[in-house]
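Researcher: I'd like a structural prediction for the single chain below. Treat it as a standalone chain; there are no partners to consider.
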Amino acid sequence: MAEPDLIRFLNKISQLQVLAERVQNDSSSREQLAACADHNQVVQLAQSWGFDIGRRWGERDHAPGGESNLLATPCPPPGEESTRVLASAETWRLLLIASNGYWSPHDEWMDQADHEWVLVLRGSACVALQNPDRIVDLSPGDHLLIPPHQRHKVERTDPDPGTLWLAMHWDATSVH
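Model: Treating it as a single chain, here is the predicted structure.
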């Protein structure tokens, strides 16, 4: 582990220890933490208390940068997604999707004719699938294959610096 990474890691541990002590000694803080439903809410609550615990292990600083480094892709405005086509041909396309606290509208399910494979590069996400009904939590390195006409929707993505996805779509008729 490089020295800057070690320092960041030890600083996060120190902040988590102070945060844990606060929660143990203050019933109001404990109740607020207990009311959090997911990682993002815990991180936001901790930030409101002055703690910076949101960065996951291995995440780098993501300053907007050149197109050659996908991980430097800037985050879109809150509640939005942006999509960039990285490569495509007649029967397939490779997309880079950046999400910032995005979720699909409550009653709207995606139902596409193509196969879709997604890989989370940065942040996390939660995807709901139908038939069979299930919820899939995704973190960096996790991937999901969505067959044609598998109804699905995004339940949540991380706020800034956001969730970064690599998505491959291909025509169902091109699979042999």
